[in-house]
Amino acid sequence: MSEVVATKQKVGKEEETSSRIRIKIAAYDHKIIDQSVKTIMETVERSGAAVRGPVPLPTEIKRYTVNRSTFVHKNAREQYEMRIHKRLLDILEPNAKVIDALQHLNLPAGVDVEIKM
């Protein structure tokens, strides 16, 4: 019985390791990132591949605290923060047409795209 269970696990892993492209998108503005994700999804669907996502990843918040004054007034401080919004897309069973369409895609400034095959 243990042999049957082991073969089912192997089959499951082989199905998961089929070809896919993982796209990780990051930007400071959530409106720009949503617009970019929509553009990428439309391009991929027009090229004939399936898309899984977008999966919203946790927003990274960087906080900085600086003194307002240079000399005295230690308690007077200013706080700044930067929010980095992230999304994850999976393109299942990509073909050459999809890859070519992604290479010629124009996205707005301020959008960081990371592609893993």
TrEMBL record:
User: A cellular component term (GO) from this record?
Assistant: ribosome
Domain Small ribosomal subunit protein uS10: start-end pairs = 22-116
Q: Which GO terms describe its molecular function?
A: structural constituent of ribosome; tRNA binding
Keyword flag Ribosomal protein: yes
The record, for SMART domains, names:
Ribosomal_S10
Would you kindly state one Gene Ontology biological process term found in this protein's UniProt entry? Answer: translation
Could you tell me which InterPro entries the record lists for this protein?
Ribosomal_uS10, Ribosomal_uS10_CS, Ribosomal_uS10_dom, Ribosomal_uS10_dom_sf
What keywords are assigned to this protein?
Answer: Ribonucleoprotein, Ribosomal protein
Q: Which SUPFAM superfamilies match?
A: Ribosomal protein S10 (SSF54999)
> Does the entry feature the keyword Ribonucleoprotein, yes or no?
yes
Q: Which PROSITE patterns match?
A: RIBOSOMAL_S10
| Function field | Involved in the binding of tRNA to the ribosomes.
Q: How does it assemble?
A: Part of the 30S ribosomal subunit.
Q: Which family does it belong to?
A: Belongs to the universal ribosomal protein uS10 family.
What is the protein's given name?
A: Small ribosomal subunit protein uS10
What is the scientific name of the source organism? Candidatus Magasanikbacteria bacterium GW2011_GWA2_42_32
Taxonomic lineage is:
Bacteria, Candidatus Magasanikiibacteriota
